[in-house]
Structure formats: structure tokens, C-alpha cells
Design brief:
Layout lengths: L1 H23 L3 H5 L11 H5 L3 E11 L5 E11 L8 E6 L1 E3 L5 E3 L1 E9 L2 E2 L2 E6 L2 E6 L9 E12 L3 E2 L3 E7 L4 E2 L6 E6 L16 E9 L8 E3 L5 E3 L8 E9 L14 H5 L11 H17 L22 H9 L4 H13 L3 E8 L3 E2 L2 E2 L3 E8 L10 H10 L6 E3 L8 H15 L2 H4 L4 H11 L1 H9 L2 H30 L6 H29 L6 H20 L5 H18 L6 H4 L2 H17 L3 H14 L12 H14 L31 E2 L2 E4 L1
Parallel strand pairs: 1-14, 12-24, 13-25
Antiparallel strand pairs: 1-2, 2-10, 3-9, 3-25, 4-5, 6-7, 6-10, 8-9, 11-12, 12-18, 14-17, 15-18, 16-17, 19-22, 20-21, 22-23
Helix pairs in contact: 5-11, 5-15, 6-7, 6-16, 6-18, 7-18, 7-20, 11-15, 12-13, 13-14, 18-19, 19-20
């Protein structure tokens, strides 16, 4: 936890440093005025002088096939500074809906007029937009007022929901480099004349919303007129725009095909030229990991030993050690198996005392069970290592011979000390058994933060900041999925048919819930209109870090050798039902063999299989174990529980609770903003 807190603290400082640099560089104004390059010491209005858009009047008419005819009238005032030959209008080809869906729009320019006369124009396509260049390169315009009229058809631009359709439309676009004095917009549905109210509004419209301001803002610098049209209340500054959202019953466009979603993966992995800088961090991550691998992994010459079934315990191998190799951490099961190993080797005895119900002054007492550990005298046949003696002296300090580990007592200080001592003992082995990859993973995540940093510096800082806030939720869900997959891979219970199905269901359900949950929170905290190349660069960066985390070796050569031993023992213990022990050990050694291997079965996650086979063997041969009073798995798992419970330090703490509510709209308009929706773009003079 301390390591992760340190990572979060460093990331926080990085964000603050980047924010300070951006503010110091005075680029915030640039973020809010897309397409405008503001000279130092001047404002955008000063740069454009008196050139402006006097009126932006747009009318959109839906056809029964779902296409929309757009008629834009753009009246501009030219001083000859920028509007020399005419104007240009940009229209985006890709629309990123708030739910993450991506749609590719299709345009068809039908007519372009200037002051009522046909005007020359050309169309250029660059990346995710088309550029309509109006005017002739060999003809200069005199300063004055000009009225341009652009008529075009657009398709695949609206949203279809179960009961209604929606037009979430960026009327003006936020990429104009001039102020806009006034904006007007009107939507016409098929056969509208038959459904007009007395005020001239189409009665089939269910809702109308309007948003003004820079990208992401929910400004109210506009009003909805009684006839359902929109008009602004005050001039718009450069970089500001108007976005509308209309909804109506789905039956109105019943014959129109549903909009077709574009291939998100294709958009993610095909960056536009202007946003190519965002793909620098993924290439940097690849280069860093290749360098790190060549420096830290290749020289080691790691080789995985062959895994062969092991039918006995190798010398110097403890149950806690094999579990530590598999789990890469010393947990409660590892400690329980180490204590159980001392029981199997007759260094301590495990006894159970049952107190029957009896009468007392307060009434009948309940049945109570106690579990005790008793230290046995050392004998010549008992081979105890220094590590064994250290554990025994911690469990039984001084002249203590008995230790109560009853689950209800929860007061076993010696067990707590022994647990901490064992964990410290194994942690000292960590550098010789495992490779340190945490620094490389943190470095990769830090490099992935360059994607929002670069996006904030060159495009939109607020989107970048919200992305950084949302990233931990996405990373958390991905890490949770990894833990579930780790459980599915290493849990020996998967060999059991019923529990295999349950474990598989857990993994699939966890993946289907946690990753969409993280993506949902990520989208909630970030801008609704993230460009696909930005999403792609960010996703590829995170996947590179995740891929490195999954494939990088975790063990040193010594660790790999020990892991092969653990897997070899697991192969044998897991196949206990096959009675292979009958061909390996004579009858007089089988009970001792069962006892000796039981702690390792518990440590390796196959305790149930081994314990039940042990109990069945004793029952069928009418034998008993001198060490374990109960060899059934229930008895062994109970020992594991009480051993774990008595070794954990209990800390009292208060608790509190809270609740919160959430609401979600049914369409884009519920979380709409200026700059959202299909349409948009911008323009300027040339």
C-alpha cells in the first residue's frame, strides 16, 4: 500500500508541475479557442480586428430515409485581413457519442452561393474532417459584408434509442476564429405542416435543449422560441459555439435505417496527422521496455526447469516456502501450513477439547470447542532445523508448553509474533527469489501519462485533467480482472468439476463487470467527446504496461527452480485419487507419508483432495493417525481458520457509512454540452 501511495503522490506532483507549466506558458486561452493562434500580448478579438460573423442561420430538414438537408446562411464582415478570397467551412467526418460509440458521417455538398450567386468551391479531406474552401484563389474580395449560403446533405448523424430518436447537433462548430454576433437554428421533421401548433412548433418534438460556450460548457446564452427554434442572446466569442438536442418518437422516422456504428478499433489505431504527437508516448514505452528487458532479463539467461511429479519432500523445502514461491507473498495459509508441518513432524501436538453444555447460575452454557498446541519433547528421531527451533521458541516462549489457538479467543500473542517472524524470514529471501518489476511498471504508467499531458498542451487541458482523474478507476478494474485471472490460473480447485464451473463463472462475471465499470467511471469523469486517436493512444499505452506486467518473468533462476518443485509436488498431490502412493510406499509407511505431505497439500491449494483421500484410506483400512485426530478436510480447514485468526493482530476501529445516488439520462442531451454531438467543425477566412 505504501508503494502505491508513493506512486499516487508522485503522479499528483507530476500533474501539478504540468499544470503550472501550462499556466506559466499562458496557453489556457489557446485551449479554449481551437484553431486560433493568438499572438503574445494580444487577444483573439484584437487579432481578428472587425472581421466577424454577423449571422449564422441554420435550418435542418429530416428526410424520411433519415438523411438531413442542412441549409446554412453565414453572413460575414470582411476587412480584407483574413477574409481575402472567401471563407472555408470544416465539417467533421467522425462523431464520438457519449456512450463511446463512434459514427462516420457522410456529406454531400449540393450548393454554395455568395450573395445569391453560384460561388466556386473545392473540397479537401484531411484526417477526420472535410474542408470546404469557398472562393477563387485568383480573385480578391473587397472589404464589406458577404452572405454565404451552404447547402449539404448529411447521413448517419442521429441517435436511435428503443422508443425515440435524437438529434444531438453542433450547429456552428467551435472552430471559428471570429466572433459570431447571432446564431439561429430550426429543425424540420417530415410532414411537419400537419403537426404545427398555434405557435408554429411541431407537436411531435418531445424535448429541446441548447448549450453554448467553449467545448464542454453548458452555457445558457441562447433561448428556445415558441416555435421550437433556437437563437442566441449575446454574441459568441471565438472558440464558442451552439449545440442543440432534439428528441421525437421513433415512429416518425420508422422507415429510416438505424445509424451504423463505425469500427472503433480501426479509428483508435489510425491516428490523424495533426494528433500524431499523441502516439509518441506508446513508442517511448515500447523503447523503454525493450531497453529494460535487455538490461535486466536477457543477461540472466533464465530457463524454466521441466516440471516432473515429486513423490516426497525435498530436503530443506518447507510448506510456507512453496506457497511463498507460488503466491509471491506470505499469507495466512502459508503460516498455517508451517505450523501444521511441525505437527506432522511431531514437534508439537494438536489437540481438541470439547466442553459439553452444563448448568450454571445464568442458565445452560453452550457447547464449546477449544484447540490447543502442545510442545513435545525433542527426540533423537526428530530432525529440527534452526528455523524450526526459532519458530518453536516464538510459539512457546520460556517454559510455556501449551498454547490456546481457539478461534473465539483471538488473544494469542505468541501466534501473532510467530506470524510476523515467519513473514520477515521469508521476505528476506525475496531478492533472491523474485525480480523487481515494480519500478518498470511505474515508469511505464508515468510515460502513459504523457498522452493526456501532450493532449492538454496542444489541444484541450480540461479534457486532459479529467482523463488523469478517471485513469485510476480504469486501472483498478483492469488490475481486478488480472487478480481474477490469476485465481483461475493457479487455483487447484479448477480441477474439481463443480468448483471449476464456479471459478470460471467468477472470472467471466468479474471481467464483464469490473472492466465496463471502470470504463463507465472513466467516461463519466472525462469529456464526452474524446477524439478516437486520443483514446487509442491512451488505450495502447495502458495495454503496453499491462502486457509487460503479464509477460515479464517474476522469478529469478533460483525462484524458477523452487517453483518447479512446487508444481511437481502439486501434480502428485492433485492426483491422490489415483492411488499412486500404493506403488511408491509400503503399507507401514503410507500413514506417515500422508501425514508428512498434508501441510504441503494445504500450502499448494490441494488440501481437500489429499485430506479426504487420507481419511478414506484410514477408514477403509481401519487405521488411525497418531498425529491428526481428524483427517477430514473439515478438520484441517478449521485448523487453518483458527490458526489464521489467532495470528492476526486485531485493531478496533469505528465504522461509518454513507450513501449516494446516481441518475442517468436516456439520451445524449441529459449530459450534453457545447461542442458535443454530430456536426460541428468551424471555419475561417482565406
Amino acid at each position: 500500500m505504501a508503494r502505491w501511495m508513493d506512486v499516487l503522490r508522485r503522479c499528483g506532483w507530476l500533474v501539478l508541475l504540468v499544470w503550472g507549466a501550462l499556466v506559466q506558458a499562458n496557453v489556457l486561452d489557446k485551449m479554449f479557442i481551437p484553431g486560433v493562434s493568438v499572438a503574445p500580448g494580444t487577444t483573439a478579438s484584437q487579432q481578428t480586428a472587425d472581421e466577424r460573423i454577423l449571422l449564422f442561420d441554420s435550418q435542418a430538414r429530416f428526410q424520411t430515409d433519415g438523411t438531413m438537408l442542412v441549409d446554412e446562411t453565414i453572413q460575414v464582415q470582411s476587412t480584407g485581413e483574413q477574409i481575402k478570397r472567401g471563407i472555408f467551412r470544416t465539417l467533421p467526418l467522425v462523431w464520438h457519442r457519449q456512450d463511446g460509440s463512434t459514427f462516420r458521417l457522410a456529406y454531400q455538398i449540393t450548393q454554395v452561393l455568395r450573395d445569391g450567386e453560384q460561388e466556386s468551391y473545392s473540397i479537401e479531406q484531411t484526417g477526420e474532417q472535410i474542408k470546404l474552401l469557398i472562393g477563387r484563389a485568383d480573385r480578391q474580395l473587397q472589404p464589406g459584408v458577404y452572405r454565404y449560403r451552404i447547402q449539404y446533405q448529411v447521413s448517419n448523424h442521429f441517435s436511435r434509442f428503443p422508443d425515440w430518436d435524437e438529434l444531438y447537433w453542433n450547429v456552428t462548430g467551435n472552430g471559428w476564429s471570429y466572433p459570431i454576433n447571432q446564431v439561429r437554428f430550426r429543425l424540420l421533421l417530415p410532414e411537419q405542416a400537419a403537426f404545427l401548433s398555434a405557435s408554429g412548433k411541431d407537436s411531435r418534438l418531445q424535448s429541446i435543449d441548447v448549450y453554448t460556450g467553449p467545448v464542454g460548457w453548458k452555457g445558457d446564452n441562447a433561448r428556445i422560441l415558441t416555435d421550437g427554434s433556437i437563437e442566441t442572446l449575446a454574441p459568441l466569442h471565438p472558440g464558442e459555439g451552439v449545440t442543440v438536442a432534439y428528441t421525437w418518437l421513433r415512429s416518425i422516422l420508422a422507415s429510416a435505417p438505424a445509424p451504423q456504428e463505425d469500427s472503433l478499433l480501426g479509428n483508435w489505431l489510425s491516428p490523424a496527422l495533426k494528433s500524431g504527437i499523441l502516439w509518441f508516448p506508446p513508442f517511448l514505452i515500447v523503447a523503454y521496455y525493450l531497453f529494460w528487458w535487455s538490461k535486466h532479463i536477457t543477461p540472466l539467461g533464465l530457463t524454466k526447469p521441466a516440471v516432473m511429479p515429486l513423490y516426497s519432500v525435498p530436503n530443506g523445502i518447507y510448506p510456507g516456502y512453496v506457497r511463498y514461491l507460488c503466491q509471491r507473498t506470505y499469507d495466512n495459509v502459508a503460516f498455517s501450513s508451517d505450523v501444521l508441518d511441525l505437527v506432522a513432524r511431531r514437534a508439537i501436538a494438536l489437540t481438541k477439547v470439547i466442553h459439553k453444555p452444563r448448568k450454571s447460575r445464568s442458565g445452560m452454557t453452550q457447547k464449546r470447542e477449544e484447540q490447543w498446541l502442545t510442545r513435545l519433547p525433542e527426540s533423537g528421531s526428530m530432525k529440527l532445523t534452526p528455523e524450526d527451533k526459532q519458530l518453536l521458541s516464538t510459539l512457546f516462549p520460556g517454559k510455556t508448553k501449551k498454547l490456546d489457538i481457539t478461534e473465539s479467543s483471538m488473544r494469542s500473542v505468541p501466534m501473532q509474533k510467530a506470524r510476523k517472524a515467519q513473514e520477515a524470514h521469508y521476505e528476506k529471501m525475496h531478492p533472491t527469489l523474485f525480480l523487481s518489476i515494480a519500478g518498470a511498471v511505474r515508469a511505464g504508467l508515468a510515460l502513459s501519462l504523457l498522452v493526456p499531458v501532450l493532449y492538454g498542451f496542444f489541444f484541450n487541458i480540461w479534457t486532459a485533467i479529467s482523463t488523469v482523474i478517471g485513469m485510476p478507476f480504469l486501472l483498478f478494474s483492469m488490475m481486478l480482472c488480472l487478480q481474477l485471472l490469476k485465481y483461475a490460473r493457479f487455483s487447484a480447485l479448477l480441477k474439481n468439476s463443480e468448483k471449476s464451473k464456479a471459478s470460471l463463472f467468477l472470472v467471466v462475471a468479474g471481467f464483464l463487470f469490473t472492466l465496463p465499470f471502470g470504463l463507465g467511471l472513466f467516461r463519466l469523469l472525462t469529456s464526452s467527446q474524446l477524439p478516437t486517436d486520443y483514446q487509442g493512444a491512451l488505450l495502447v499505452s495502458l495495454l503496453l504496461c499491462l502486457g509487460f506486467f503479464c509477460i515479464v518473468p517474476r522469478h529469478t533462476q533460483k525462484g524458477l527452480n523452487g517453483l518447479a518443485i512446487a508444481k511437481g509436488m502439486t501434480l502428485y498431490l492433485r492426483a491422490a485419487e489415483e492411488r499412486r502412493y500404493e506403488t511408491l510406499y509400503p503399507p507401514d509407511e503410507r500413514v506417515t507419508h500422508f501425514e508428512r505431505m498434508l501441510p504441503y497439500a494445504l500450502a499448494l491449494g490441494v488440501g481437500e483432495t489429499w485430506a479426504n483421500t487420507f481419511a478414506q484410506y484410514l477408514k477403509s483400512h481401519q487405521m488411525v493417525s497418531d498425529v491428526f485426530s481428524s483427517t477430514q478436510w473439515d478438520g484441517i480447514s478449521q485448523f487453518n481458520r483458527v490458526c489464521s485468526a489467532s495470528s492476526i493482530t486485531v485493531v478496533s476501529s469505528g465504522s461509518g457509512g454513507g450513501g449516494g445516488g446516481s441518475s442517468s439520462g436516456s439520451g445524449s442531451s441529459s449530459r450534453g454540452s457545447s461542442g458535443g454531438g454530430s456536426g460541428g467543425g468551424g471555419g475561417g477566412g482565406w
